[in-house]
Design goal:
With 100 residues, this protein is mostly helical. It has two helices and no strands. It is rod-shaped and about 85 Å long.
């Protein structure tokens, strides 16, 4: 699946890998604590994961809303057509036997 914003995923993965190596080297050579770099990388990874999941949720909700809107528009068109023809607007609905 191609990215929608036009950014190559391999480029993003490469940048993320370089940043991870730089952070780990900084934590070992300058701070002299490996755990500081690991905690920083883990927290950034969790933040990226949460943002990714939220974006997927928003896209899924948009698709659901679009589908529901299309169904409502189609149903509204069916009702308008039946009324214009002088027909029964309840005909064809599930659970309706047609008797009034």
């Amino acid at each position: 699946m191609s990215s929608r914003i036009g950014v190559d995923r391999r480029l993003l993965a490469g940048v993320a890998a370089v940043v991870a190596v730089v952070v780990l080297l900084y934590s070992v050579l300058i701070i002299q604590r490996l755990l500081a770099g690991v905690i920083l990388l883990a927290s950034v990874a969790v933040a990226v994961l949460v943002v990714h999941l939220l974006l997927r949720l928003v896209r899924a909700l948009e698709r659901i809303a679009t589908a529901l809107e299309a169904d409502a528009d189609a149903e509204e068109g069916d009702v308008r057509g039946a009324v214009a023809d002088g027909g029964d607007t309840t005909a064809g609905r599930a659970g309706d036997d047609g008797a009034t």
